[in-house]
Amino acid sequence: MPSNLVNTNPEIGADFVNSNLTILGAFESGIKTDVAEQFVQKFLEKYENVEGELYLGYPIYIDEVANRRICVDMALVSKIGVYIINILTEPVVKYGEIQDDIYAKVETKFKKQNFLFKKRKLIFDFYTLTYSVTPIKEEEDYPLAQKVDDIMDFIEQTREEQEYGDDLYRKILSGLQEAYGINTYKERENVEEGTKAYAINQMASLIEKYDSAQMEAILSDATGIQRIRGMAGSGKTIILARKAVELHTAHPEWNIVVTYSTRSLRGQLEALIARFYAAKNEGAKYNPEKLKIMQSWGSATSKGVYYEVCLRHGIAPLNFSEARAKYGRSVNHFSRLCGELLSSIKNFQKMYDCILIDEAQDFDKNYLQLCLKILDKNQRLVYAYDELQKLNEEAMPNPEQIFGKNIDHDTPLVVCYRNQGNAIVTAHAIGMGLYRKEGLLQLPSSSSVWEAIGYVSDTPITEGQEVTLYRTKETSPELLKTNPNEVIQFLGYEDYKKMYKSLLDMLKSDLEKEQLIPRDIMIIDMDTFEYGKNCMRLSNIQSEYNSVAWDDEFNYDEDKEIYKFKIHTAGAANPEDFFREDSVVYSSVRRAKGNETYMVYIVNAQKCVNSLQRRSDRNALFTAVTRSKGWVKVLGYGEDMMVLQEEFEEIKRQDFKLHFDKYPTKEEQKQIFLNNKDVAAKDIQTIDKTKNLIGKLTGNGNVTKIQLMQELFGMSKEELAKLLEGGE
After folding, report:
1. 295-311 burial, b for 16+ CB within 10 Å, e for fewer?
2. Going by C-beta distance under 8 Å and a sequence separation of 6 or more, which residues neighbour residue 691?
3. What is the pLDDT of residue 576?
4. Does position 1 have pLDDT exceeding 60, yes or no?
5. DSSP strand E in 414-461: where?
6. Integer distance in angstroms from the first to the last C-alpha of the chain?
7. 542, 563 in Cβ contact below 8 A?
8. CATH for 3-184?
9. What are the distances in angstroms from CA 421 to CA 214, 631, 657?
10. How far apart, in Å, are the Cα atoms of 705 and each of 209, 610, 715, 719?
11. Nearest to residue 679, comparing CAs of 618, 612, 609, 617?
């Protein structure tokens, strides 16, 4: 993202928001803020066009002896040089010792990145400088500034004559940010050029760096409520994990909780936090008693926030079965449980110093309010969520609706790092039914959402006017070097057997020819209610073709297997069982949520076309597509699949843009919503029972289907024929 898009400190450099200097962080001290304000003004007057990032109060290391976090007051990484500036507000005897200490710590930080040094030396120079508010004696060989002009003179004397290139500049920023560990992919050896594994290796080799908005989310003051929002793939989980590590490192005495809904997220969060903490703390392990990773609900065998709150307040917690028995099937059981705690507990005990909530769109306000109630007076609550949980509405109410007050920090993340551009546009277009012959199925409730999730338009989004939305290289970086036409495909088949046979062939190609490993691949079934049975169907087809490995003596030769790979059902071993090293995962959309991988196969996509819950099913298809960091193949069969294929062809004709001949008015949006309401789950159950009854009535031959319809609707054969042909 261009650095001039974000100025995260409105108090400093407010008059220079269109500059190339990004300002991150803040000071508690008003004196230091004044110095920074003066410095920014003079720097931008002299180096207006120089790209750079200025970090204020940036944490460098932990002084274990003094038990405090040591921060660099101003860390400037620019294309004309790197400067670490310490601001003294009180006189000191030997500021040179402080300078030496800071230099050593910053150098160590940079040297953790092997691409920043060669022959035991850094490949760039950086400078330390002390600024003293009060007069002090200058020490030899230790630069001292006693007015802002002195800082500017020092920069001018030491600046690079030739500006750093983009590559080196990005590397230096990565080193300062301690961005190593973002990418979990381990480069594989002996991969052939042109394979998917080769493309993934290339992507994995890119320099890891947080963008300005991500760094602001990490560094922002932990006091009060913080909201982190963005689209799927914008790095929310990574940012949340890194923020948890920063807080745990700085305040090891705090009781911190990272909480989530989808159980399969636990492994991902644990891996991220362990890796970030080890990288920051010389390979050390975090303290799981002080930094806890807990599911929202929990159980007697697995800690969860709800369970812990109940036990602390002397209340018997309920499990899922007990909650369903108490409230019935068609309610949000967890919300009801949290709501009861909020109303029944009069005096909440303060259990934690900070709570970080991932995938907060999976919860309603009851859980967020409950989390706030069990925090201390500083109310350190961080919640991250997808801007759009459903394509027809924002995922979360505004903070005032949730907490009854405004929040302290709000960080929107507009860049999508997970999904390739063509894939994310397709996901939105298909999810909305934008190019559906019958018209739109749904639309975000506010047009401002488009900008918040990284779309741009050459003209303002005006109701009733033609609008074209598209993504740029800034909001959808081209991280994967592959043919854009191969990023996402829609493939239709005659029946499920042919679909699954084709899937097996593609899996074979991926694992053998493309050199992927099972963990690189995810199969997502859109047939929510039958996905377990469908996985068995796939297994049976695989076994059928592998049966050639049996000889006449009933001996089995594995070398003769056609499909030499395993497929397992997500959650088969336990609720947190998802990816395996030796087996490809077969999952429902619900279990896949929160997980991601490079190659995603979506099967039974035809289920999303003419179901009684078309909007929900389209939302689910959107979610499935956005699980991919690389390629997506959408598979289905029958006439309904042809509908999706036609929509995809139109997306390609529109050059992967969202084109509205006329952007719907508020009234038209209401009508779209009313015309495409999902049938309630309880009504679907009633319909299923009715279908079974009709089957019995017509199955014995005494009553024909035409006769039954005539009786039910009071219509003639001619009227029925007209209705079936599409008439009124």
Report:
1. bbbbeeeeebbbbbbbe
2. none
3. 77
4. no
5. 455-457
6. 53
7. yes
8. 3.40.1350
9. 20, 11, 10
10. 64, 21, 13, 15
11. 612
Domain with CATH 3.40.50.300 in the chain: 220-413, 421-477+484-675
Burial code of 394-410, b = ≥16 C-beta within 10 A, e = fewer? Answer: bbbeebeebbeeebbbe
When pLDDT is averaged across residues 291-319 and rounded to a whole number, the result is 94
Cα 73 from Cα 71, distance rounded (Å): 6
DSSP 545-593: HHGGGB-TT--B-GGG-SS--EEEETTSSSTT----SSEEEEEEHHHHT
Treating both helix axes as pointing N-terminal to C-terminal, what angle do 95-111 and 166-177 enclose, rounded to 10 degrees?
Answer: 110
Task: Record the tokens describing residue 573, joined without a space.
Answer: 């071993």
Beta strand pairing call for 121-122 and 117-118: antiparallel
CATH tag, 220-413: 3.40.50.300
Comma-separated ranges of CATH 3.40.1350 domains in the chain = 3-184
104-126 pLDDT, tens per residue? 889 988 988 888 988 889 999 99
State the pLDDT confidence band at 686, using cuts at 50, 70 and 90: low
SS3 82: strand
How far apart, in whole angstroms, are the C-alpha atoms of residue 656 and residue 129? 50
CATH number for region 421-477+484-675: 3.40.50.300
Residues in the chain: 728
